[in-house]
Amino acid sequence: MSCCNVSDTPAELHDLSKRINAEEKRLVNCKQVDVNQLMPLKYQWAWEYYLKGCANHWMPNEVPMQSDIELWKSTRLTKEERHVIMRNLGFFSTAESLVGNNIVLAIFKHITNPEARQYLLRQAFEEAIHTHTFQYIVESLSLDQREVFNMYHEVNSINKKDSFEMKLTAEIMQDGFSTETPEGLRTFLKNLVGFYVIMEGIFFYSGFVMLLSFKRQNKMIGIGQQFEYIMRDESIHLNFGIDLINGIREENPGIWTAELEKEVREMILQAVELEVAYAQDCMPRGILGLNATLFRDYVQYIADRRLDRLNMSAQFGSKNPFPWMSEVTDLSKEQNFFERKVTEYQKAASLEW
Questions:
Q1: Does the active-site annotation cover 136?
Q2: Which of the residues 12, 75, 205, 292 has the least number of beta carbons within 10 Å of its own beta carbon?
């Protein structure tokens, strides 16, 4: 494979760029680092994810929070309901920043394909939007910022999930780490599984069920709407990540060994137990029509779905106790004419020329 070298002269780069074709591109371990040469596209799926992400763009401050503020200040929410909301804000506020850090500091530099990098840039911005969302919610409800943003230190079930992920980032940020060795590439694949399949594909989903269950009961509508948008973003992140993992496997025959598959399965099984423990911590007693048994079934169900996408056999055989969740990722973000006009006017008014 003839990828351009950083020592080439500008004239040589110009001549070589004419010869670069889609077949020479690779998801990892291509030495073409001089320019992010997007065309010709090789991985159309990566570009489609980028376009879909752009089409789904949203900002948290476009979502009105007045009804949430009134309900939060009232006595109509139980202590248990407030506990669920606070726990999930505490987890998501740190988890989204961990995902963003992992993209920028760990994943991006090892992905050498331009269209995949284009999507990673879009995803990193979406993670920033999600982090902005939690700041917006905390500020709107006048919550204790320290309590929310320090739960990853103070709440064991959150700390264990975050620590699980941070270990994966630490491994590929060690001095001298490279994906050019089989061992390095397998470590990188475990990071991708940890963040795309486990963090965004398993760890987030109990929280989605809990917070969207409020909205289904006409409570905390603003938070519910924002989490609908976050979940839609995360479903795209998950699908991109799995296609990225499977693409690297296809381009590197033999890299996905029986031993690696065993490690990945053990990671997913550990994640299921961590997520069930988190759900039990958020909801020690059944509320909103939810209970710990339903969450175990649900987490096992989605874990089997993630295993299937990785071409691995199912582990649990559990059924989905929340079929309504599949509808959320298909929601339309269209607003009515008057709502859209108000948003547009607000944006125009904030510009300085």
A1: yes
A2: 75
Q: pTM of this prediction?
A: 0.87
Tokens coding 164: 């699980």
pLDDT tens for 123-136 read: 999 999 999 999 99
**Joined tokens for residue 268:** 């997913």
Give the domain ranges of the chain: 1-42, 43-342
Burial letters 94-117, b for 16+ CB under 10 A, else e:
bbbbbbbbbbeebbeebbbbbbbb
Per annotation, catalytic residue among 50, 136, 196, 278: 136
Give Dmax over CA atoms of the chain in angstroms.
72
Three-class SS state of 179: coil
pLDDT in tens, 23-37: 678 899 886 555 567
Burial of 82 (0-12, 13-18, 19+ CB in 10 A): exposed
In terms of Cα–Cα distance, which of 100, 98, 95 is closest to 127?
100
Q: How far apart are CA 351 and CA 171, in angstroms?
A: 43
Residue 114, token pair as written in the block: 């331009």
- 81-104 per-position pLDDT tens digit: 999 999 999 999 999 999 999 999
Q: How far apart, in whole angstroms, are the C-alpha atoms of residue 61 and residue 77?
A: 24
Architecture (CATH level 2) of domain 43-342: Orthogonal Bundle (1.10)
Q: How confident is the model at residue 327 (pLDDT cuts 50, 70, 90)?
A: confident
Paired tokens of 157: 């079930």
